[in-house]
Amino acid sequence: MTAETIRVRVRPFADLGRFFPGEGSVRLVDAPAGSTVGDLLAAHGLGDGRALTLAVNRELVTPEKPLSEGDVVDVLVPMSGG
Fold it and tell me: When you count CB atoms within 10 A of the terminal residue's CB, does the N or C end of the chain come out lower?
């Protein structure tokens, strides 16, 4: 990690773990400083417009949300039911 990068924790749910390196429920990921959630997703093969539910530090966000050092990013497949 350098001054031009930040480290975030990604919690991919369901089968989304295959897009992020590592094992376990939380993955440490380096990203360029100034990255957004959308940039992070695109860098890991999820920039294809698929519907995802996103949260940073347990707050729902859009892909335009800027990331900061130490953020926890949850990436979920939307659920429906009734």
Answer: C
Q: How far apart are CA 64 and CA 62, in angstroms?
A: 5
Beta bridge partners of 32: 5
**How many alpha carbons fall within 13 Å on the CB side of residue 29?**
30
Would you list the domain boundaries of the chain? 5-76
What pTM value is reported for the model? 0.90
- In words, the CATH class of domain 5-76 is alpha beta
Taking only the tens of pLDDT, the chain with its 82 residues reads 567 999 999 999 989 999 998 889 999 999 999 999 999 999 999 988 889 999 999 999 999 999 999 999 999 998 766 6
